């Protein structure tokens, strides 16, 4: 991708970029981070990637204190250049973003900490189409700081560029401006779902945990995702009973995820107010089917709209725009809604945190999970289903 002349003329200013931190996680733990490349062939892979691997990033709780030599960078230079062009932010400013992640920090050792992580479900995340999973680092770090092990999946060749660990060359993918046909979206959904299912197979993540003698939970999972990633999580949930709950972040349902049967497992779906402009049918039909199933099996579903939001607002991107200066006399080329990045960040962390707390058997936050609250007026409830066969619209 070319660098616009206006951007190139400002590149010398990159030397002045100062470090900018993402919002700090609020949980009792610090956050460790590692990555693993799994071998898995995608038949007829439509991307320009190799088609025989996927990348898993692992966020996990640690007691280790962050240090300058362990901090994981947010952006690699290639991705910073590509995404900086879209949002009119200097690449050096994007590279100045700092995470609180610690590369391969020590695991927990205290018995009470280990017992918690062993019993809480491992959460598996799939990002929006064409996006790197790391662009939800703020949310994923927050969940890990609370005590969850979080796995984030990347399919090399789908995002414009994916940096790979351990000296492997990065993978150039589709152009960031490439249009997506309905047929291609279904193909993306299918290989994303296949990647997630392969990760949960015995020779995937469970084998990696056993090989490293870790205590992470390999028996129960929660699946969640943004956009196409949410459909992949839903389709995987339909096929694997070990996925005990799902969270759909503004994701249309594609392919066979449209007909997913969850048999009462908890499911949270949240959308931007323009969601129906591109997906008018799948969510109402899904909620109705879930309600009918709840008459037979216990069920729990929430469906909300975040007023003032936009599709990409459910990621870290609004934080980039809020925290970093834009090139003078320019504006971002993508609508991020009217809710600030920090507000959306806090909102998503609050509701996902309450949901997974409920799923793991912790405190049920009825104030947040059962209807509108004064603290979050942006969140409007569209529907809910409960285990006694009741529904509200």
UniProtKB/TrEMBL annotation:
Its EC number is 3.1.1.47. The keyword Nucleotidyltransferase does not apply. GO terms for molecular function: 1-alkyl-2-acetylglycerophosphocholine esterase activity. Pfam families: PAF-AH_p_II (PF03403). Keywords: Hydrolase, Lipid degradation, Lipid metabolism, Signal. One of its GO terms (biological process) is lipid catabolic process. It comes from the Eukaryota. SUPFAM superfamilies: alpha/beta-Hydrolases. InterPro entries: AB_hydrolase_fold. Residues 1-19 form the signal peptide. It is an enzyme of class 3 (hydrolase). This is 1-alkyl-2-acetylglycerophosphocholine esterase. The lineage of its organism: Eukaryota, Fungi, Dikarya, Ascomycota, Pezizomycotina.
């Amino acid at each position: 991708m070319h660098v616009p002349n206006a951007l190139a003329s400002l590149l010398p200013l990159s030397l002045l970029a100062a470090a900018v931190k993402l919002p700090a996680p609020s949980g009792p733990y610090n956050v460790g981070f590692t990555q693993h490349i799994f071998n898995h062939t995608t038949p007829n892979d439509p991307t320009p990637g190799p088609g025989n691997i996927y990348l898993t990033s692992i966020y996990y709780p640690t007691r280790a204190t962050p240090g300058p030599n362990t901090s994981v960078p947010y952006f690699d230079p290639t991705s910073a250049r590509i995404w900086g062009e879209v949002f009119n932010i200097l690449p050096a400013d994007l590279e100045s973003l700092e995470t609180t992640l610690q590369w391969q920090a020590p695991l927990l050792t205290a018995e009470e900490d280990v017992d918690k992580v062993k019993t809480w479900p491992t959460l598996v995340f799939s990002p929006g189409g064409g996006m790197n999973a790391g662009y939800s680092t703020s949310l994923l770090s927050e969940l890990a700081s609370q005590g969850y092990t979080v796995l984030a999946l990347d399919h090399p060749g789908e995002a414009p560029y994916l940096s790979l660990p351990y000296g492997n060359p990065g993978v150039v993918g589709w152009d960031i401006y490439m249009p997506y046909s309905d047929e291609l979206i279904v193909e993306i959904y299918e290989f994303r779902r296949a990647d997630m299912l392969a990760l949960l197979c015995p020779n995937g993540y469970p084998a990696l945990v056993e090989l490293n003698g870790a205590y992470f939970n390999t028996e129960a999972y929660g699946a969640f995702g943004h956009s196409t990633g949410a459909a992949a999580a839903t389709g995987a949930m339909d096929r694997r009973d070990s996925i005990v709950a799902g969270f759909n972040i503004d994701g249309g349902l594609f392919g066979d995820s449209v007909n997913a049967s969850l048999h009462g497992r908890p499911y949270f779906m949240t959308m931007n107010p323009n969601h129906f402009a591109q997906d008018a049918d799948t969510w109402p039909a899904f909620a109705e089917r879930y309600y009918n199933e709840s008459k037979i099996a216990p069920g729990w579903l929430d469906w909300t709209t975040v007023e003032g939001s936009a599709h990409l607002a459910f990621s870290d991107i609004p934080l980039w725009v809020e925290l970093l200066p834009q090139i003078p006399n320019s504006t971002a080329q993508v609508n991020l809604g009217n809710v600030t990045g920090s507000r959306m960040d806090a909102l998503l962390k609050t509701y996902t945190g309450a949901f997974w707390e409920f799923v793991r058997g912790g405190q049920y936050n009825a104030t947040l999970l059962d209807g509108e609250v004064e603290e979050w007026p942006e969140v409007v409830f569209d529907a809910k289903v409960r285990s006694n066969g009741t529904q509200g619209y």
